[in-house]
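input
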Amino acid sequence: MKRNSINTAMKLIFLLCLFGLFACSSETKKTVEPKSKLAYSRWLSITESENGVLISITNPDNITEKSEYFIGGNGPANATTISIKHHGLAVLSSTHVGMLGLLNEIDAISAVADKKFCYNKELNDRINNGKVVSLGQETDFSAEMLLNSNSKLVVYSAFSGKLAIDNKLKKLGIITIPNFDWRETHPLGKAQWLLLFGYLTGKQDLAKKEFAAIVKRYNEVKSQSKKSNVPTLVGNLAGDFWYAPAGGSYNATLLKDAGVNYIFKESKGTGSLSLTLESVFSQLDSVSLWLNPGFVSKELLLANNPKAAHFPVYSKGEIYCYAYDMNRFWEMSAIQPDLVLSDLQQIIDTFNSNKKLHFYKRVE
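output
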C-alpha cells in the first residue's frame, strides 16, 4: 500500500514538473522573435489606441499564427472583440491564478483545470462553495462543464496546441485565449503576462504598477549574484528522456542571472531539452549540485529514476527542489521571480550555512 501511494504521488508531481517548469515542447523549429510593444515578452503584444486595446499573441512555433483580441469599439476585422467582465474567466494554469490573485481578481474566476492543484485559499473556498467549477485536466474537459460554469473567456497554456474543443467553444460563444508565458526567454517576460489579466479584468493600471515593482525587485536581487563554478545538473528522467530547460528558456535565464553554472546553458531552444540518459551520464562526474528533480524526497526520486542512485551527485553532492510545496510554487513563482532568483543565489553560496529559501528545500 505504501509503494502504491509513493508511485501515485511520484507520477502526479513529476508530470507537473514536465508540463510547467521545463515547458516540455518538442521544439525542432527555429523561432524568430516578432516585434512587440512590451519590454520583455516575446509572444505578447499590447497596443493602446483611442479606439481601445489590441492584444496580439504569437505562437512561438509558428510566428505567422497570431491570435488577436480587441477591447473597445471599432477594432480590426480579424480581432475577436472582448467585453470587460469581472466574472466568467476560466483559467487552466496555476500561473494564471497567481496573477489574478495579485490583482485581487480571484472572484473573476469561474472555472479552473483541477482543484487539487490550487494553492490560493480564497479560490479553494470558492471551489468548495460551488462558485468555481473544477474542470479536470486542461487537455481533457467537456464543453458542457465549461458552459455550466458560466465562463465567457478561457485562458489556456497551449502545451499541445489549440484546445481539442476550441471550435465547439467558439460556437457556444466562449472566447479562447492561448497563453505562451511558459515559452518566454526571460522570467520578466513570463511575469509580463500579468498585463494580459490586467486588461481582461479592467485592472491594467494596477497590473502595470505591480509589474514595474516585479522588475525593480528582480534587478535588485540580480545585482547581488555571484558566479558559481560548481557544475549544476537540472531536471530529471521521464520515460526514455531527460528533460531540462533549454539554454534560451526563461528558466535558463533565471539560472544564469543567479550565477548558477548550468551544464546545458549553451543548448539551443526556448522550451525544454529532451536528452538521452547517456548524454547526461557523460557529464555527471563533475556535477555536485542537482536542481529541480521534481520530487520532495530521495525515496520518491529513486522510485521515478532508480538509476539516480549511481549519480555521484546523489550521494556526494546536494539536491534542491521546490516540490515540497508544489502548488504554491506554480501559482506564485511567475510573479515572484525575485524570490526564485534569491533561492538559487543562496543554494550556490557554499559559505552560507543559514540559507534563507522561499520556495526551495534540500531533497533528503
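quick obs: Residues 1-36 have pLDDT under 50 and may be disordered.
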